[in-house]
Design the sequence.
């Protein structure tokens, strides 16, 4: 029922979230991820799962040092850039579960995100 009202609010929050990422938030998230990563290495089954995921994703196991190094390379600036490219430079893909009545069109959503779509340009 409230889809037409809710979608723009969600889109605005996604855009703001990407712009408002702070160094403090990144540092907190990095510390939490590092803790989880290192604690996960204490359990053989957890470690086996990590290695399996790494082989699937990267084709090889990743050393702890490399994981920590990659984690340390993440910055607020890089995350803001990623959010910008994700939400402002790639046309959105829309999936609707349930009735589409009241749902904004892809063109309307793209326009809200600042895209000029072919349909909107005509």
Sequence:
């Amino acid at each position: 029922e409230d889809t037409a009202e809710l979608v723009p609010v969600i889109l605005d929050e996604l855009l703001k979230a990407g712009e408002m990422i702070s160094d403090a938030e990144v540092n907190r998230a990095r510390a939490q991820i590092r803790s989880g990563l290192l604690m996960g290495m204490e359990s053989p089954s957890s470690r086996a799962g990590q290695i399996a995921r790494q082989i699937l994703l990267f084709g090889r196991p990743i050393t702890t040092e490399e994981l920590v190094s990659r984690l340390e390379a993440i910055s607020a600036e890089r995350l803001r850039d990623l959010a910008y490219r994700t939400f402002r430079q790639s046309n959105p893909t829309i999936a609707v579960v349930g009735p589409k009545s009241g749902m904004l069109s892809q063109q309307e959503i793209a326009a809200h995100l600042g895209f000029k779509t072919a349909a909107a340009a005509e």
Q: What stands out?
A: The domain at 3-121 is CATH 3.30.830.10 (Cytochrome Bc1 Complex; Chain A, domain 1). Residues 27 and 60 are 28 Å apart (CA to CA).
